[in-house]
Amino acid sequence: MLFWIFVFLLTRQSSLTQGHPDLLSRAATEASCDCTVNSCRTLFDIVWGCLATIFACTWVALHQNVPDPDLGHFALLMRKLRMMLVMIIAPEFVVGFAARQFASARWISKEFDVSKSHGFFCNMGGFVSEEGHPVSSIKQFPAYISAIRKIKKADIEDKSKGDTLSKGIAIAQGLWFVTQCLARVSQHLPLTELEVATLAFAVLSVAIRLLWLHKPLDVQQPIVVARSEVDIDPLEEEDITPMNNDSNDFSDKIGGIFGNHAHYHPISSTSVPSFYYIEMNSNSTNLFIILAGIFGVGSIFGSIHCAAWNALFPSIAEMWIWRISSVFIAAYPVLTTLIITLGAWVNVNIAKHVFTILMVLGAVGYPLCRLFLIILSFTTLRSLPPSTFVDVNWSNYIPHL
Asked: What is the residue range of the signal peptide feature (predicted)?
């Protein structure tokens, strides 16, 4: 409810300046006069503040799974850059991935009587067998759970490159940017399109950091655990075809973002995929997490961009491109969720055809809309009203005599 009130206030503030040119001109003049008394910000301040926040919301916020031990520094860098690119283009998928890992870690914690840190470490491929294969399947747990329980929670947290305090500071940074935006709205100061786009990243970043609060950050080396003497790894008895480079193609990488790891098997790998999480026994829970984590958050992400619906754009074409792209990103997840939900009560074949059409439309339209919003966030900076450069007067919120 608070989120939608915030979006309404942003839209209302933008409409006041868009619909009344005289009011805009007067506000701009008053803002210029205020700049002689109050502090002002420059275009560099706006861009630098937004880019720093986006970097913190993407690069710093990412809690990757444990990589292959044989990867070099350059390969590790490219691995994180690829995941950062996914978060910039479709951050709601990363939120959905974080939500699935959180639910899986919580389920492992309750089911096998370990901490959430243990659950996250299992999901990220942190425990490996003596042969170097990840213990990342429910079937493997009975044979390794005794050794996993002997690993102290402090030992897992010691592997992390960030503690609760540093993660809390990072969350506070995102909340600070949101507070600045709220303060500008309350003082009738306009937000740039870049700030609105950054605000969307900041809101999603806070959600990601909270979901990954107990997940170790940037772990490079796994912990070796031994199986029980009376048990063997049940996966060793299966007929396993080792992975090859042909199965690790582009379609598998895209499927991994949605939680589909058809070609992955622990015994034929030395690390888990980038978007891997351990499947739980409850399919209904998985479906709920996917819908709420990906589609729901995706709609919120697009809705925040809609807050700049009536903002001042340099041209009419740019205004309509922003509006159409924002509506598409906000409405597409809701429409997809609706089709999936209705598929349980209507003709399944019809629902499948409609869902397929939506997937094709999303595969083409969604990246284009995200690209348009990213480009417009910077191109619209070439023409800004003077009131944009007025900084927030924080003394209005501090009690003083």
From this structure: 1-19
